What does this fold into?
Amino acid sequence: MYSEKFQKFIEMWQKDFAFERSLDEKICRDKDGNPIPWYTYPAIEYLAQFDYADKKVFEFGCGYSSAFWAERAKSVLSIEDKTEWFEKWRKEFDYKNLDIRWRDEGEGYENAIFENGEKYDVIVVDGKRREKCAAAAVKALADGGVIILDDSDRINTSEEYRKAVDELKQAGLLQVDFYGFCPMNCYTKATSLFLSRNFDFKSKHKVQPINGWGNLWSMERKERKEFYKKTEK
It folds into this structure.
């Protein structure tokens, strides 16, 4: 039905990305069952390289990303506006460094970022009121930090997203767009990072970039040769 090379491609998505399971079970988890955000895979792989042990994270919008960050960061504060999701994630996630709060009071939602009087190294804008949240995020961003705007490709059809991007760019942040597939969806989208100009998060690894999921160069030389032999048939 498929060529052997295309079958290898399918197997990579099934095995290395656990994409089939993510689609069928509607979960954001990697091949080992670890939680991952609902961002594009390229954005996830880029972000996963860094050491967040001393970083504070704030999220507008709670979900599997909250667990992803809680397993890496010093602290995570996530704001959720939907009661059913708030209750679900509070029960499902048991991390001492994760604080999930429900807010649905107009300006109280975006202003939740100021409640603790802190600055945050990573701020995720992935909930409602994205224009207002982006403006608030700029004020609460720690020196050298990053703001993540998910579904940023909606700028093409949404005035709210256009204004959100404008807020972030006017703050002098550097925009890097990560296009591609994401967990649970059979279509592509974009996740954008807005980096402080002095962004300098340390990598967890000796080199950067590391080999990504499904990367041929993560194999030993002998394994690569065998792989080429099989795909050239």
About this structure: The first strand starts at residue 56 and ends at 60.
